[in-house]
């Protein structure tokens, strides 16, 4: 019996210590590991961040709502998420986490606001500060007041950055410009400003000034918050990519016009008026066909040098990439009331179209991309001689000319210098397109048998 008892006691002891050991192991796994490893698991961490971000947004949007401030979502990342989101939701219903569109992985969210609606809510900033938001205000000269006559330019708000709990809400101020478009200024930090206030390199807006068509907005609910968004998000994002705007160089232009005063004769004024009409019709016609164009040759020189048109040039010059050519261009301009004056070359080589509107000529040069240069062709009708004008590659920017929003090569000076040489700033009335340009080259002749097709003069 005692022997049995001893075995039983021993077994009991072994079993109970095993149970205790298991219990310890279980306890360790269940509580201790979780306490140490829990916060390091990314989904938990993520949700916490998003919850904070969402609270900041909620606070800010509630303030905007209270002050009737019509902010609209302009953040490229959130808008792309939103458009993908809309597509996904069409396919299946997904269990959405807390804040899936407005809380991006960036600690920044951008909103646009029409400057005029901001001006009517001066209490907004103080109210935001009361709620704990810190503010960095970036102001700049009002370009609508700078012109050839005055360069004073009052300071206007351009970008406001509101910061709370490590999140930045970037408010971009949009101003109406006379060419019927919206403009925002560049974001430039003054020397005395805090460079660590925000991750400036992550901002969508402010590297350059930008120009936009007025977006149509709709009010919607995103992540349980009321938010205005552009109705056509794709369209807005496409515009955002190519929105860079160049201000005319008023200071240099004024200097130029002091040296070479503008022609104010009736004929010159008449040309300016007609050139403006022609440029407006061109913008509308090519806009309907979705063909981008830029002002070229003398028209580009006029903008760059004197913020206007060169009245003795008597024509308007534009460039179009040949990849954007569409055969219905001619028909579209005819419908707009212009007559085709000549057509030189062919789509594969040196295409050039010329239209007449009243007595002002519109020259359309098609540009061909070739390695690190682009070129356009010229044709002398009476001899069939071909010419080639070569430019360094360029990208396109918006600019304003004669109160119209037009594109110019962003690298405008390189473009102008290529065409007119280093003396571009000196007016030259005796200009010969076959010999004067710095970048002209002889390029052979069209075969006589093809003249009827390649040299059409009306
Ligand atoms: C939205 O914009 C895109 C790009 O500009 C355009 O292709 C599309 O037709 C537009 N959609 C609507 C519904 O207007």
UniProtKB/TrEMBL annotation:
GO CC terms: Golgi membrane
Keyword Transmembrane helix: yes
Principal location: membrane
Localization annotation: Membrane
Stored Pfam families: FKTN_N
Segments passing through the bilayer: 7-27
Domain Ribitol-5-phosphate transferase FKTN N-terminal: 1-276
Superkingdom of origin organism: Eukaryota
Keywords: Membrane, Transmembrane, Transmembrane helix
Thylakoid found in the keyword field: no
Bilayer topology: Single-pass membrane protein
Entry-linked PANTHER family: FUKUTIN-RELATED, RIBITOL-5-PHOSPHATE TRANSFERASE FKTN
Protein's UniProt name: Fukutin
Source species: Oryzias latipes (Japanese rice fish)
Name of the coding gene: fktn
